[in-house]
Model the fold of this input.
Amino acid sequence: MAETVRCPMCGKPNPAELEVCQFCQARLKPLIIKQPPELEKPAGPVEPAGPTEANEVPAGEGGEGGADWLQDLRGQNQTPEEPAGEEETPPKEEGKETPDWLARVIARKKAELGDKPPLGEFVIKPPKASDEDLSWLDSIRGREDQGGKEAEAPQHEESVDEGDWLAGLREAEPGEQWKATAPLHPRWEDQPKEKGAEEPAEELPAQERTEPEELPDLSSLLAEGGEETAGELPSEEHAESEELPDLSSFLAEGTPPSGQPEEPAAAGLEGADWLERIPQPPQEKGQPQEEEPAHEEELPIPKGGEVGESSIAKVPDWLEEVAGLGLEGETGEAVGEGAPPGGEGTGWAPDWLASSVFSGVESGAAETEEEKEGGAEEGEELPSLEQGEIPEWLQRVRAQKAADMVEPEPSPFLEEAEITPPEEEKIEERAGAEVPDWLAQVKPAEETHEEAAEGESPPSEGEQEVPLAPAELPSWVQAMRPIETAAPSQPVGEEADRWVEKAGPLAGLQGILPAESLGEISKPPLFSVRLQVSEQQRVQASLLENLLASEAVPQQPRPEAIRAVPQRVLRAVIAVLLLVAVIAPVVTGIQIAPLPQLFPPETVALRDMIAALPADAPVLVAADFQPALAGEIRTAAAGVLDQLMAHGARLALISTQPSGSALMQAMLDDLLNNRPDFQALYREQGGLVNLGYLPGGAAGLADFAAFPQLAAPCALDAVTLCRPAWDTPALQGVTSLSGFSLVILITDNSDLGRAWIEQIGPKLGATPLGVIASAQAAPLLLPYYDSGQVKGMVAGINGGAAFEEVVQVAGAARTQWDPFQAGLIAAIALILIGGLVNVILILLAQQRAKREAN
Amino acid sequence: MTLSDLIWALVSFVLTVLVFSYLLGDNPFLRFASSVFVGAAAGYVVVVALDQVLWPKLFEPLIFGSISNEQRILLLVPLVLGILLLFKLFPRLTRLGNGSMAYLVGSGAAVIIGGALLGTLFPQSAATINLFDLGAAESRGASPAGQLIEGLYVLVGVSATLVYFYFGARGKTEQEIQRPPWISVVSDVGGIFLAITLGALFAGVYVAALTALVERVQFLWNTILALFIR
Amino acid sequence: MRAPVSAAIAIGVGLVILLGYFIPVPTLQNVRTTLLDWAVILAAVAAWVGAANLILVHVSRVRSQHESAAFSLVVIVAFVLTVLVGVVLTPANAQFQHVVTSIQMPVEASLMAMLAFTLVYAAVRLLRRRANLLSILFIVAAVIFLILDSGLLPFENVPVLVSGLVRLPIAGSRGILLGVALGSLATGIRILLGADRPYSG
Done:
């Protein structure tokens, strides 16, 4: 063969001298980890041992479980292994390393089993020290370093060529047998024929033939955690994602190693019998197997073949895929759970595998503390894979992988999505299965296995019922796994607190920080769209609606027959009529009506009061009226003042209005001008004093009522600013209100009259109070007369006329009586006529409304 | 008639005519007459207040008055209050006059309370009750029956009129605020009495206005006669 | 002046004056009289403030060239002339009193006379605007009392009827008076209690 190397990634041929693929830049030659000479084993071909080969995987503590899956695998691989399997025998002599665990498996098989392993059992030929070229494992390791996450990729995409190396394992290690816990994946074995990638896969040296997914695991297995690995071996829960197709085919093809001392399964290893049978390095024999897996995705072998619990989780993907083909323990545990075989050696594994895998494992194991703890890695003798010497089986695996990558055919192995992890499975249930834990963790791809394979042996019922133990996936791998594929598999006990995001973009992933609870996305409170209206609001709304509706209703036009008289015309007519009524008597001097003959009692009483005044009696005249009604007041008060003057009363004028005193003064002057007989008394003798203006309203009246001399000290005097009023002849002997003989209140306002009555009245004592009021104030002042507070009253022109009539004095009332009567009659007529017309109009409107309604 | 009298008569005549021009509508003549009236009236008030109140009661005693020092000191109080009251003319300093206003309001309120009690409430109530004094009525020569009827009439009228001005009511939920039913009935009766009283008041106002009209018309005629005819 | 001080002044002065109505103690009466006298003086100053405010308003109108600035100027002129003449002549002067008798009275009386036309016009249109029982009763009462005030009918023959008709308004009038008195009483009490403070601000 020309010196060409098939790229394990893309499957394209590359010159042998190249270290990386010229097409995809994948590493062609695995990294070789220098193993101690005593650990190196000849990279012998990993011959897939037959089922009766001694290369049986030593049964672990769960030997039965471990044997089942191997048996299944063997059963699936009824067809003779292809020569590629032999061809895939890794040139162990080339110095490639084999994983420790394989070596141990092979060794165990050889030691224990001398029969041909049962169907489905794989025998792994223990790798020979330094015979195995584990370069392919180095490449695996290298790829694992690059992308450990690729371990999550379906590991089941193994080509059936992988079965060759497993078959070689069996042959090489007759003493050890792998017991398939599940039927071999049919496709796993048949694929090389179906797929065109067989040749490329066959070209690959057995040591190097591996899948991209496997390489990381295997390399990590070799490194035993010393090398950087992106993750850890899958946990036992993640059985569906961890399959070891390579190992399954390898185990199926190969004969179990016989005569190989079986590595006792480490405590906690379940179904890791074959792993335990892997011969441990001499130094490491008897050393306890550690549980600490170097990496989750690594096969839990690398510690010099020691099988520890930690290594259980470190199941390479390719081995997991193998287990996924049906390599289940007797308890149905995933192969992944199975721990790698102990460090008994690799007698059970094919030479090529033992040399390549276990040597690599040993080399990698030396770098980690766990490896040191295990202490078995260095002691293991594992074949090492030399660079370029890729086992045929591995090549086939790679080719198959490449083909799978190129041709997206359904993988023989169950996809992660297809894999339904057995919910009922518990890792504890797998306890006791003689299946390596790391293999037991791999979930068997039962469904796809049955679909793709034709001559596949039906898996035993017992085996199907017991799914493989879930592999111990690295946390980062688990986090990347979709929730739907991982849902059935519940984390067991120790992983019960592993958070699985169930919502959001990271749904299904684990190992991520749980998102802060944003609070329950509860249904928002429902608010009624309907407007909450109370009954009162409803009523008001209806009222408003009616108002608006009434606005929209067009008003009926008024009938033209009935027109409203313009206001201006009516006002003009009224004005004209009144003016005519008033002017006519004034101008013509005609008499319309006689003076009233009925005298109000209050008018008569006032007359009596005045008549009863003694001569020269001081009379207080309060002139609280406005200029507006000065004419009426003059008409009403003229007779009274005349009578008072006729009686010689001393008059003292005062007013709470600024203009009152002036108006009163003017009134008296006019009166005196008409009565010269009174002028001497009141103009010359000081019978008249004007106290002037009293401000303050009621307060001033109260002050005046309490102390009139203090309230009104000065009299109006044109000469002096303040002439003492209470020293004048008019107020001589008067010190208080009660000193007056009569108090006459002249007012045109009921409020002023009331104030005077309220303030002055209580202080008057026996002094009578008379009122000369305007006609507009009389109705409201009449109760005071009725109550006796006012002794007499003259109201308006009627009262004045009556008073004049009573005293038989001709005053101003007579001159104004006729025009007054005329105006009064005109007003009465206008009001009556207007009211009558309005009544008629209303009746007509009602009749019209009735007619229209009818 | 002297010249001054004639002038003043003419002034009155002109002003009267100007005001009567309002019958034809609003016009500048009316506004001119009103403006003159307002200015003159305001001036007259100022003069009268100064001449008849402030000078004799405040300034003259303080400056020239022969009063004791105690009285003079006491007069400083109204002087200060009066000055503070003048600050009411200035918006920024109007608060300084609040005390003076408070003095006026307080004194006015007290006077009103005393007057209302002693001058109206008690006497008027007594008068209403005394209407039922049939003996006194008989002594006056009035008919007791008539007096009784009158008393009842006045009593019912007064009570109903007072109830008419009562607007207290309880507001019930979702119901129109209404007075109690019995108050509504009595209020309606009070309305009747009020209608009669207001009619009387209307008549009185008209009589007063008509009297003013007659007086003005007579003034105008007399002036015309005096100036142009005689 | 702060509100509490003003309220204290109002309440204190009011209480003293009110107590003087009912307690005939000479000292209290003297104090009451003094307080009332001061109120009279302040009332005169308040009349000055009113007149001054009126003039200031018209002055502002003249300055701002208001549309009625001319009439405001007339007001100012009339005011100034009246004050000058009054200060010179004094209110006791008969000529100065013509300000009242020849200016104020004609204008006010003429305006009052104009009210007669308005009242008749309103009475004529009352039933047109509002035709209810109270309106009709009002009009009827007004007409009756107008007739009673007139000499159209020989009421001397029916004095009882006239007396009865004339006394009809007494009930209503007394009710109005009592109502006004009660309202004044309540208002005064509120002021003395400090509930109402119309003097603040």
